[in-house]
Write a structure and sequence with these properties.
12 strands, 42% strand, alpha+beta, globular, 4 helices, two-stranded antiparallel sheet
């Protein structure tokens, strides 16, 4: 049974698609927007930074790239769709209203993109939830809040400051990965301890997912795994802070 909270810690939910390279025309940006303009009436030009590994005479090097994209934004500014060559994403900022609202937005955006781009294969899908938790105490006994936390041996100091810890869980014979990470971040109030709980479910193998299976199976199974992992990673003390409903 899905747990629901009056104060969910989600600061951003992202669903990202990358498609097999093919024909691309900048006119597609306007054609895609025509399908979603009622839901996303504002348009912004943005640049997406990326890193590519390129060959050199002595080996390889990392090259920072800029990819022009267009962002279509909802009236309230909390939800937006990003579109670029062989790329599309839907982002939902806080307050997050639930999967029953987010999934239809993803499907609307995906169908609008696909109607014009007609991609045959999705090379990567990612469903990511970024959660922020601020704990009004320092130092914090992490075991009271988290089931995933750093292990510090008896010979090491236990009064540590910042940390990052994570683990990858493979699914579907290694095609998909659920990455779960916990890290400290800058607190909003002095004396608090702030944590980022980041759950990212994505396809790892380049064989990708057939277009007709994105909505019918992948999205729902990915969301279920992310939701189950979130609940498994927190304790009842955090659930009380999130004000569970029911």
């Amino acid at each position: 049974m899905t747990r629901r909270y009056r104060k969910p810690p989600i600061v951003e939910a992202i669903c990202e698609f990358r498609f097999e390279p093919g024909d691309w025309d900048s006119a597609m940006l306007g054609l895609v927007w025509a399908h979603v303009k009622t839901r996303f009436p504002k348009r912004q030009d943005v640049q997406k930074l990326g890193v590519e590994i390129v060959p050199t005479p002595t080996g390889t090097e990392h090259k920072v790239t800029q990819r022009p994209m267009v962002r279509y934004v909802a009236e309230d500014g909390r939800v937006f769709m990003q579109v670029g060559p062989h790329f599309m994403s839907v982002n939902h900022l806080a307050p997050y209203t639930g999967w029953e609202d987010f999934r239809p937005l993803i499907e609307t955006a995906f169908n609008a993109y696909q109607r014009e781009a007609k991609a045959k294969m999705v090379t990567r899908i990612g469903l990511r939830y970024i959660n922020r938790v601020e704990l009004p105490e320092s130092p914090v006994e992490l075991e009271e809040y988290l089931e995933l936390r750093p292990f510090v041996g008896s010979a090491l100091p236990h009064d540590h400051a910042s940390f990052i810890v994570g683990v990858d869980f493979p699914f579907n014979e290694g095609r998909d990965v659920l990455r779960l990470q916990v890290a400290t971040t800058q607190p909003e109030r002095e004396g608090d301890v702030a944590l980022i709980l980041d759950l990212d479910h994505f396809t790892l193998k380049p064989t990708g997912v057939p277009v007709d299976q994105v909505s019918s199976s992948w999205l729902e199974s990915a969301h279920t795994r992310v939701e189950d992992a979130f609940e498994a990673a927190i304790t009842n003390k955090l659930r009380l802070m999130f004000d569970e409903i029911g």
